[in-house]
Design a protein that fits this description.
With about 210 residues, this protein is α/β, with parallel strands linked by helices. Helices cover about 30% and strands about 20% of the residues. It has a single domain, classed as TIM Barrel. The structure holds ligand LGQLAAA5.
Amino acid sequence: MRTRVKICGITRLEDALAAVDSGADALGFVFYAPSPRFVEPAVAEAIIKQLPPFVTTVALFVNASVDQVQTIMAQTGIDLLQFHGDESPEYCAQFDRPYFKALRMSPDIDVVAETKRFSLARGILLDAYRPGVPGGTGEAFDWERIPSDIDKPLILAGGLDQSNVVQAIRRVKPYAVDVSGGVEAAKGLKDCEKITSFMNEVARAN
Ligand SMILES: O=C(O)c1ccccc1N[C@@H]1O[C@H](COP(=O)(O)O)[C@@H](O)[C@H]1O
């Protein structure tokens, strides 16, 4: 099966359209104010309204209030929620929208047990662990640590770029890959050539 691609940290329409033109399946919008990729909901709304059909839009949250998630869902019409903090399964499941849960690969994490805990998640995203930083570190983790018996679609993230994504796909065989820093010109600004190269490499791996 073809590996799906999510390009995260979209803040500009031109980056969104470049990602779509290159074949990205999903676009991520970061609604976590401390992130350099934070996008105002009104800006995300304007971008989303100009997208062609059949592109999945994803809202990324880190320990957001219920009210914030609901407000952004209503304003942007986002398709899918990505919870990248310490949210509980009950918290994640309360919204009227499908979600996937990000797990950070801390030294003692039990990925299989955590995946079972988030039984209603549509997928599990695995990201690098750096204490005190919820994500978007640009760092990869040891893919050998990924258990083979995860019973949900696996989204691989963390330090992916054009130089390592083929190896990552062939080793891990994820349902999807998620990239942010690896296709940027500067934090929050995508580089169209890097997006194209990344997408070409994903196609080569499949
Ligand atoms: O992108 C961010 O700034 C961010 C902030 C807080 C939580 C997650 C964030 N991004 C997600 O982190 C992973 C890995 O990103 P990278 O490719 O290593 O830069 C990815 O899922 C982003 O969506």
